[in-house]
Design brief:
By secondary structure, this protein is of the alpha+beta class. The protein is built from ten helices and six strands; from the N terminus they run H-H-H-H-H-E-E-H-H-H-E-E-E-H-E-H.
Length: 268
């Protein structure tokens, strides 16, 4: 079954709207709350999304210009990227940070709509298809949005848009090993998840002895390293499945610190 790219972009826009509704309700004091990412405030999470949505839009509209900027970044000509956007966010008022993110996110959707889903797009790691590129931005929007809602006390219910995150989580199994200098295993794993709507999502080979089952909510929180396995209700069977769940990483870049056991506790 082929991917509906137009629906994917619609889902990205809907995910942006979901976290945007939370940001619009937050009092000024909430923007300076510490999140579960050590050293990162709520405003820093929003700045991260704004900065990389800007860069994603640049990669689509001017791939050569983006590649040149990445080369200059790697050469140290542009300073520490993370420190730069965090410093920018901390010099802004909450209203200014929100406006920055709103423009960056809407600009990304605008340039993404006419993109060829199969076109290879440059990024900070390997090039990827346009569809994978936009899926990654949706995953980032959802996961960094989760960092926000985890501490501000404003609900953002999960939806079946999580299927994009779950699919990416499954597809990045091998990358989770490569990011740690490990050889990806070949043992098949069957993943069966219950969507927020109650629908069942299945990935892999049903007769595999290594199996993972549970809610898409738990699985997506784990593969984006927003929850430790101990704080989920996932059922993980087999050594290969256990190993993967201990290092799962759906995002690009070096391995993250993740979350500690008991940091959240299991949800009913």
């Amino acid at each position: 079954m082929s991917l509906d790219y137009e629906q994917l972009v619609d889902d990205l826009e809907a995910e942006q709207a979901a976290i945007g509704a939370v940001l619009a309700k937050m009092p000024g004091s909430a923007w300076d709350l510490q999140t579960h990412a050590p050293g990162w405030l709520v405003r820093d999470q929003v700045a991260h999304l704004a900065f990389f949505d800007e860069k994603a839009a640049l990669a689509i509209s001017d791939p050569d210009g983006f590649r040149d900027e990445v080369a200059r970044t790697l050469a140290g000509e542009l300073g520490d990227v993370e420190k730069g956007y965090i410093a920018r966010s901390r010099a802004m008022t909450p209203t200014e940070v929100l406006a920055w993110w709103r423009k960056a996110s809407s600009d990304l959707v605008r340039v993404a709509r006419p993109l060829d889903a199969k076109k290879r797009m440059p990024w900070y790691g390997p090039d990827m298809s346009g569809a994978s590129f936009i899926t990654a931005r949706l995953m980032e929007t959802w996961s960094h949005g989760l960092d926000v809602v985890d501490v501000v006390g404003i609900a953002r219910p999960d939806t079946d848009r999580l299927k994009h995150v779950a699919t990416l989580g499954v597809r990045t199994r091998g990358f989770s090993y490569l990011a740690r200098g490990m050889t990806p295993p070949t043992d098949p794993i069957f993943v069966v998840l219950t969507a927020p709507s109650g629908e069942k999502w299945e990935f892999g080979e049903p007769d595999a002895s290594n199996r993972i089952s549970g809610t898409a909510t738990d699985f997506c929180r784990l593969v984006t390293q927003r929850r430790h396995l101990a704080d989920t209700n996932l059922v993980v069977e087999g050594d290969a499945a256990q190993e993967w769940m201990s290092i799962a990483q759906a995002f690009a870049g070096p391995p993250g610190q993740g979350r500690q056991p008991g940091e959240f506790g299991k949800e009913s």
